Amino acid sequence: MESPGGFPVGITFENILERQSPRNRRIADVFAKCGLVERSGQGMNLMFEQSIQQGKLRPDFTGTDAYNVVLTLHGQVQDYRFIQFLQKVGNKTTVSFDTHDFLVLDLVHREEPVPAALQSRVRNLAELGVIECFGRGKGTRYILSRDFYALTGKKGVYTRKRGLDRNTNKALLLKHIEDSGKDGCVLEELTQVLPAVHRSYIYGLLRDLRSEGRVRMESYGRWARWYSVSV
Predict the structure, then answer these.
(1) Which residue range(s) make up the domain with 108?
(2) Which letter, b or e, does each residue of 3-33 get, where b requires 16 or more Cβ atoms within 10 Å of its Cβ?
């Protein structure tokens, strides 16, 4: 669907779920008083929520510019199991999810980055056991809970995505550093040991090992090399 005029002043795709700016507030108020709209400014939220809850792609504004708003609503269900998962989550918890919660779940399901503005929602969903977080800082990874993979019959995929636990990862790094002997090793080698995680996560593991007195570092920055304390 296409509407002439572009977004109202102050409204962008990035803030469209948070901000309201009717082109004619008097008309909007009249509609609200007459019961023709349930609540001002909720239409876009409902579009996103229902698209996600129905397992469809999110509303797409590709093609929108200063002169026209182009909105595509996709009708094809992408993943029926995701719909079942959302229904199961709704039955298990008494907490009501809002648009941003559904948005985070959809981003995690599609393995897309979760923006900083939604990180507080990530923590809430993790506390509820709906998603799981691994790593720290920029290296944090998110996956849906085990329940989703049980519904899809892919528990093995869950185990693979969950990855090795922190202690096992530390043991792998320590083993490589010990095997490097007097030559030591640089960070680039250690990223090859754990290719699925971010460098910042590896740095965190190395800091743990150094505070435990198991490894030492010589030089800094790009020339830094890691050695076992037994060498």
Answers:
(1) 80-162
(2) eeeebeeebeeeebbeeeeeeeeeebeeeee
